[in-house]
Design a protein that fits this description.
The protein is globular. By secondary structure, the protein is an alpha+beta fold. It is about 35% helix and about 35% strand. Strand 2 and strand 3 form a beta hairpin. Helix 2 runs antiparallel to helix 3. The N and C termini lie far apart (about 45 Å).
């Protein structure tokens, strides 16, 4: 399998994570426009009524409203061909409504893994697993 685009794909993902960690929805939205294909295939639970890059923008709207200080720390990346796998730790303080739960003021830390496929230098497909159970337990929404 060719790895010709691998270094630039990893660099693109690094730049995307830097935008995400800005905490600024305008910066994140512009990064999505720049780094994500408009017809993105997003294989993760996303807000209804949106597809492609617009769905990703909605995800970040929801996350920033609930966790305004959200931070994604990349723990590990693996690159092969047109794919980059990113294992991350996410932290944030619950300051706004999230999945029907009012703000708790609690800090959450959870893990996620995403497999991203790149095409023409942009993220074309995302498959992800987020440890939502850990997130909800820390918010007190489900018993430990």
């Amino acid at each position: 399998m060719s790895t010709a685009g691998a270094p630039s794909n990893t660099a693109t993902l690094d730049r995307f994570h830097a935008a995400v960690n800005s905490g600024d929805l305008d910066i994140i939205s512009k990064a999505i426009d720049e780094f994500v294909a408009p017809d993105l295939l997003f294989h993760a639970p996303v807000p209804m009524g949106a597809t492609g890059a617009e769905a990703l923008k909605r995800v970040w709207e929801v996350l920033l409203r609930a966790f305004p200080d959200i931070r994604v720390t990349v723990e590990e990346t693996i690159t092969e061909g047109d794919k980059v796998v990113s294992r991350n730790t996410v932290t944030g303080t619950h300051r706004g409504e999230y999945q029907g739960f009012p703000p708790t003021g609690k800090t959450v830390t959870y893990n996620e893994i995403f497999i991203l496929r790149f095409a023409d230098g942009r993220i074309a497909e995302i498959r992800g697993i987020v440890d939502a159970l850990a997130q909800l337990r820390q918010l007190g929404a489900v018993p430990s």
